[in-house]
């Protein structure tokens, strides 16, 4: 089989890549190793309403809930509340990823991309030492797909980059190890996303509760890999459930790893581009990955459509993509990585003090950056290290 | 030796992401381990469900 572009992985990054490239006229093959796109889910499903609307037309079929805001709870129980249109910069919609991912893949298909499920990439084809497509397993049979460019959208467990000589292995301090339950409980607040901080609750991470409507919520935990031990996430999530939703009924269980490494050294190689979690483009503070993945996919797809017809797919030519994402989403990711590096080592006292410092200040209208600014202002000594990052 | 408890594994691929030797692969609902495994233990440490285990003598 021959085409202009192979996209490995049909999550949001892959589908946006495939759609953008196909719309611009490329012959695209997008392969997904699972037999069902979007399932099983490995995501808390919260996404910024405003940011998402810029990328895709919202459809009620894949929106589980819209929230009014977010609550952040300090280890000692003190809470702050942020209203939706601002917190909405980080949360706003809670999605139904199983439907969402497939809808995006469908858009890629409608744009002309060929979609292949139960098709797993096994390695890169090479021609004179240069990547020239993908060897895959299609429902158990070997299949070669020749293409001048391969875009790896293969998620946290990405292999495409490694095959091309890009070391994407995450250190334990650069991954949040996560577990999540879909919980039914009358105590769930359908209107607010909740974040619980504390070193006993979630070392180097947080517990979240993202409502999905009708007293359902994704209740999950992320723990920094370096502070985790085998099975810590599921154990601490069960502890949290016992303490907070003792009557909660678990309708689904999900696990996953979220890259929080910040930008990696390189996301392009000869004939290869990485996008989304494969490129470690998830937000190191929130762990959110959907928006960055979709933006990067769109950039990569457009750039592929521009460069492939000209035969310019060497590493140097592909630097256009590298530079574009670093100038845009990359700035945000870098800053949030530095902030995360600082936050993960705070003690519970530090966290309490910080939330208390917001007492009497109206934070309802702040986004994450605004909130950090106020925190730096209120805790000048403590947050000295952050000052240069936030202003 | 690294063993994967398939009955415990949630096939999320987090272990694959941290493997410095690229010795792991997530195939639909199971994890494959190849001979490149150096028994470093990173995968076991970060597994959210505790499904990966190293033999005691191999731990270092």
Key structural traits:
heterodimer, A: 391 residues, alpha/beta, six-stranded mixed β-sheet, 12 helices, 27% strand, B: alpha+beta, Alpha-Beta Plaits, two-stranded antiparallel sheet, 2 helices, iron-sulfur (chain B), 4Fe4S_Fe_S_CS (chain B), 4Fe-4S (chain B), PSI_iron-sulfur_center (chain B)
Task: Please give a structural write-up.
Chain B: Pfam families: Fer4_7. Chain B: Keywords: 4Fe-4S, Iron, Iron-sulfur, Metal-binding. Chain B: Residues 1-28, 29-57 form the 4Fe-4S ferredoxin-type domain. The complex is a heterodimer of chains A (391) and B (60). In chain A, strand 18 (268-269) and strand 19 (272-274) form a beta hairpin. Chain A is of the alpha/beta class. Chain A is built from twelve helices and 19 strands. The mean pLDDT of chain A is 94. Chain B has a single domain, classed as 2-Layer Sandwich (Alpha-Beta Plaits). Helices cover 17% and strands 23% of the residues of chain B. Chain B is built from two helices and four strands, in the order E-H-E-E-H-E. Chain B has helices at 14-18, 42-46; strands spanning 2-4, 24-27, 30-33, 52-54. In chain B, the strands form two sheets. Chain B has a two-stranded antiparallel sheet with strand order 1-4. Chain B has a two-stranded antiparallel sheet with strand order 2-3. Chains A and B meet through strand 13, helix 6 and strand 17 of A and helix 1, strand 2 and helix 2 of B.
């Amino acid at each position: 089989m021959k085409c202009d572009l192979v996209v490995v992985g049909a999550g949001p990054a892959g589908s946006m890549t495939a759609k953008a490239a196909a719309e611009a006229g490329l012959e695209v093959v997008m392969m997904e190793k699972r037999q069902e796109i979007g399932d099983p889910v490995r995501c808390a499903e919260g996404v910024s309403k405003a940011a998402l609307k810029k990328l895709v037309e919202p459809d009620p079929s894949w929106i589980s809930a819209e929230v009014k805001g977010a609550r952040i709870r300090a280890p000692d129980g003190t809470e702050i509340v942020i209203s939706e249109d601002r917190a909405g910069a980080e949360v706003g919609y809670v999605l139904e990823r199983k439907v969402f991912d497939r809808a995006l893949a469908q858009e890629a298909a409608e744009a002309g991309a060929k979609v292949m499920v139960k098709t797993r990439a096994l390695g890169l084809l090479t021609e004179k030492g240069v990547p020239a497509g993908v060897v895959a397993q299609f429902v158990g049979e070997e299949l070669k797909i020749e293409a001048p460019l391969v875009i790896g959208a293969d998620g946290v467990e990405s292999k495409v980059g490694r095959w091309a000589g890009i070391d994407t292995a995450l250190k334990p301090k650069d991954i949040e190890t996560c577990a999540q339950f879909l919980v039914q409980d009358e105590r769930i607040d359908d209107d607010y996303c909740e974040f619980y901080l504390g070193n006993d609750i979630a070392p180097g991470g947080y517990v979240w509760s993202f409502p999905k409507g009708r007293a359902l919520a994704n209740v999950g935990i992320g723990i920094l890999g370096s502070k985790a031990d085998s099975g810590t996430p599921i154990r601490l999530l069960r502890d949290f459930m016992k303490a907070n939703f003792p009557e909660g009924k678990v309708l689904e269980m999900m696990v996953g790893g979220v890259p929080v490494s910040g930008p990696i050294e390189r996301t392009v190689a000869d004939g290869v581009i990485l996008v989304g979690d494969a490129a470690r483009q998830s937000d190191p503070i929130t762990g959110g990955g959907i928006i960055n993945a979709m933006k990067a996919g769109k950039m990569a797809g457009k750039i592929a459509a521009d460069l492939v017809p000209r035969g310019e797919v060497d590493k140097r030519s592909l630097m256009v993509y590298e530079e574009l994402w670093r100038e845009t989403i990359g700035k945000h990711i870098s800053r949030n990585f530095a902030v995360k590096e600082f936050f993960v080592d705070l003690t519970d006292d530090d966290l309490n003090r910080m939330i208390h410092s917001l007492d009497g200040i109206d934070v309802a209208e702040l986004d994450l950056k605004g909130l950090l600014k106020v925190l730096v202002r209120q805790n000048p000594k403590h947050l000295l290290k952050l000052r240069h990052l936030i202003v | 030796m690294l063993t994967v408890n398939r009955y415990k594994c949630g096939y999320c691929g987090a272990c694959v992401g941290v493997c410095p030797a690229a010795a792991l692969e997530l195939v639909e609902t199971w994890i494959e381990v190849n001979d490149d495994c150096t028994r470093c233990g990173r995968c076991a440490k970060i597994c959210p469900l505790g499904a990966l285990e190293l033999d005691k003598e191999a731990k270092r």
